[in-house]
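WARN  no MSA supplied for this record, continuing single-sequence
INFO  ligand: NAP
INFO  echoing inputs
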Amino acid sequence: MKAMTYRQYGGPDAVRLSEVPIPSPKPNEVLIRILATTVTSADWRARSLRLPAGFGVFGRLVFGITRPRQPILGTELAGIVESIGREVTRFRAGDEVIAFTGGRFGCHAEYRTMAEDGMIALKPANLTFEEAASLSFGALNALPFLRDKARIGRGDRVLVVGASGGVGTAAIQISRHFGASVTAVTSKTNMALVLSIGADRAIDYTEVDFTTTGETWDIIFDTTGTVPFSRCEKSLKPGGRLVAVQGTFMQWLGVGSPSNASGKQVITGVARANPDDLRYIANLSAGGEFKPVIDRIYRLEDAVEAHEYVDTGRKRGSVVLRVATDRK
Ligand SMILES: NC(=O)c1ccc[n+]([C@@H]2O[C@H](COP(=O)([O-])OP(=O)(O)OC[C@H]3O[C@@H](n4cnc5c(N)ncnc54)[C@H](OP(=O)(O)O)[C@@H]3O)[C@@H](O)[C@H]2O)c1
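INFO  complex generated
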């Protein structure tokens, strides 16, 4: 099968079109023919080993000491079940599905196997394969951070910094789903986008520093790494939570975090989603409550260009790779 592979760390041109064997499903797995996948910030980090401050030394431990352990990037996909292992009961050949492989990657290819009880769900019928492929990465990061770690509640005021990115566009919609009001911090170019997906207000960070407005929020959800607690402490309400999605090693260790007595909290780490969460997001999307945001669509073979664009740090929502081009 065709796959985009990277055999060494580096820039976008570390990624090459390759021919690799089609994986065989184990008894409990399905084989999916991939029709669309995405290039995300996770692919950029795994490919370049550019990690948040303090994590540099861990990069090779996680992704491979001398070279990438998993040569095929891609954390999410949409496609059609091609065949099933003999023990599989939940899916059958021909089912249209979405799947999230997260840190196991492997979606920038024509086929991928998934355990039937893993992060795989039926594709919402109202979405195209490109839209469906863009559902999970942002949402499955924003959902556990907001719902499980920050315990978002109805009426909360949420500030999303980096609101136009893959995680930010999901955070806006999930916050609204839980009954919060959302202020989006973005640049002028992306104001209309963030308002169109549910933000109540938008602040252009090139003109206004939200920390100087005197306003306060229950949750500050920062995907950009530009809002340490020291910068936003006064912008958090009593009991307020800073969610540092792009947390530094020091933040993971709790350095610079407030004391318990302050009642404020810094939340960071890794978002842990489960298969129910994937079905939850798919249902929201089927009901029109969650809309994947697609910036650009490339062919799988043009993944180098897609990586170049993702590397700019300016993408809006998702950058899609269309894997099969011959379908109707
Ligand atoms: N902890 C975890 O488990 C976890 C999971 C997923 C992702 N992450 C991390 O989260 C970060 C964001 O991921 P992503 O996929 O959302 O990235 P992304 O899609 O590449 O984000 C790009 C967006 O960020 C916006 N942006 C850049 N600088 C900004 C600033 N100073 N203020 C406001 N907006 C700004 C850009 O908008 P403008 O062009 O308007 O500036 C652009 O639309 C990454 O660092 C990623 O590694 C962590």
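The mean pLDDT is 96.
INFO  checksum written, moving to next record
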